[in-house]
Design goal:
about 240 residues; alpha/beta; Rossmann fold; 2 domains; 8 helices; 11 strands; disordered N terminus
Length: about 240
Amino acid sequence: MAVPVGRPILGAVISMLRYLFRKLPISPWQKKYLKYMYFRSMAAIGRDAFPALFDIDRKMLKYLPGTNGTFIEVGANDGISQSNTWYLEAYRGWSGLLIEPVPELAKLAKRFRKTPVANVALGAMASDGDTLTLSVSDLTTTVANGKKDRSGAAAKQITVPIRALSALLTEHGISKVDFFSLDVEGFELPVLQGLDFDTHRPRYILVETEQAPEVEAYLKPWYDLKDTLTFHDYLFEARSTE
């Protein structure tokens, strides 16, 4: 009887990728491809793999046990690195919308993920249709200020369109959202101000923020703080509308 070789071969590939990632002096962009190959191989052999920081994606399974749900991930990066939604897509059949303002990262997310990707920045309702200038290097993205990142690499400036989140969701035909992951490095409130909670009220909102009191106060009319997953990751649950 023939012995299947797919799983052993993929296991060897995974071991090789781990070695290359640790040992080779490769660029941040090359590391992104290695991460993609690693996590895709893990999924192919049916082994759980969680790319999010601090096990956030694993922790969220307590609140998101079902399959075929709908997510939004804002600050999606390349779709794999530190993603809070990759596991849901790869293992649970979820889909939704990834939002990433940096064109190079958005292109990678389109390659690495099945979920649609919007290459825009998000802002308040009043800023929908405006533009935002960002400073981008290999490792960081900030509002343009001419600074260099920690690696010493010179940052380049890019201009991206600003959209209000509810307008974007309507364009993509998304009405019900089970999970909204938000990681925008200090711009949480403008993004939330672009969400019409009468039209789009995600069941759970996970916010990475250093402005927790301000975010909680803004969400208070619609949400309760459900859990603190890390020292700066806060999970809010929508109150019942019944």
